[in-house]
Amino acid sequence: MKKKDKIVISSSTKNLHLVREFIEKKGESLNIEPNTLNQILVSVDEACTNIIKHNYKYDENNEIEVETDTKDKKFIITLFYKGEEFDPTKKNNPDMKEYFAKFKVGGLGIPLMKKSMDSIEFNHTQPDLNSLTLIKVI
Amino acid sequence: MDEFTITEKKQDGLAIIYLNGFLDAHTSNVLEKKFEELLALKSFKIVVNFSGLTYISSAGLGVFMAYIETMRSNEGDIKLCSMSDKIFNIFDMLGFPVLFNITKDENEAITKFTESV
């Protein structure tokens, strides 16, 4: 397998499954066990969904670049995208006891994204360019 | 292959819905529409069979959160059954089994409805 690889999608939720299929193939070639690989898929999916919704406001004329890499037994997925500088790692997870007691809806994408990975890094690298790196120890 | 489809059957006053394919931010509106249909028919007792579902994200989880209170306040419930390990794992990560009744198979979910009558 090529060490680094990437896929570029236009920012529509209809393309989420393309990103998942891309990551799944990579994960399978690394022999990542199915439950762990599924968590990685969910994390990348949630990250892309948030970008499509919040950064690009469902405007399909934008792109998300998804890059994969491996290093020191780590599967590393980096998303490159434009728009608002918002660091999801700084957002606190909801209190799930209260969440269920009040039958709340929404806001679970970032918690799921974070719980599924070992570490996440956000960078606002250049003017109007963000990167979000999702790391799983494999 | 369709990305996400739902089939349905009525049995003993329950609506049993079967999810097939993947449930993400693109397809979750199909499930939302199904719950709206069931609400319109005053069908509040629902079993959701996950055996044909290959994937779920928070968009899918959100649909169940959006309807559980209404179903319960109408003496119904949404009971979930027949999940693969990887799907259950996603529900479990956020503690959903605290709020939702999740059973191994469909019969068990149906029995739980008849027991609670």
Name the poorly predicted regions of chain B: none
Give me the count of strands of chain A: 5
Counting structural domains of chain B, the number is: 1
Q: How many DSSP-defined strands of chain B? A: 5
- Biggest β-sheet description of chain B: 5 strands, mixed
Label the overall shape of chain A: globular
Helix content of chain B: 40-55%
Distinct helical segment count of chain B: 4
**CATH structural class of chain B:** Alpha Beta
Largest sheet: spatial strand order of chain B? 1-2-3-4-5
Mean pLDDT across the residues of chain A is 95
Protein chains sharing the most extensive interface? A-B, 30 and 24 residues
Could you say what the CATH architecture of chain B is?
2-Layer Sandwich
Strand content of chain A: 25-35%
Look at the helices and sheets of chain B and give the structural class.
Answer: alpha/beta
Q: Tell me the number of helical segments of chain A per DSSP (H or I, 4 or more residues long).
A: 4
Largest sheet of chain A: 5 strands, antiparallel
Give a description of the structure.
The complex is a heterodimer of chains A (138) and B (117). With 138 residues, chain A is α+β, with helices and mostly antiparallel strands. Chain A has a single domain (5-137), classed as Heat Shock Protein 90, CATH 3.30.565.10. Helix content of chain A is 36%, strand content 29%. Chain A has four helices and five strands. Chain A has helices spanning 16-29, 34-55, 96-101, 109-115, and strands spanning 5-10, 63-71, 74-81, 119-126, 129-137. Chain A has a five-stranded antiparallel β-sheet, covered by helices on one side. In chain A, a hairpin with a 2-residue loop joins strand 2 (63-71) and strand 3. The longest helix of chain A is centred in the N-terminal third of the chain and has 22 residues, at 34-55. The mean pLDDT of chain A is 95. A five-stranded mixed β-sheet of chain B has the order 1-2-3-4-5, with helices on both faces. By secondary structure, chain B is an alpha/beta fold. Chain B is built from four helices and five strands, in the order ββαβαβαβα. Chain B has a single domain, classed as STAS domain (Transcription Regulator spoIIAA). In chain B, helix 1 links the parallel strand 2 and strand 3 (45-56). The longest helix of chain B has 16 residues, at 58-73. Chain B is globular. Chain B has helices spanning 28-40, 58-73, 85-93, 106-115; strands spanning 4-11, 14-23, 45-56, 77-81, 102-103. Helices cover 41% and strands 32% of the residues of chain B. The chains are: A alpha+beta (138), B alpha/beta (117). At the A-B interface, helix 1, helix 2, helix 3 and helix 4 of A face helix 2 and helix 3 of B.
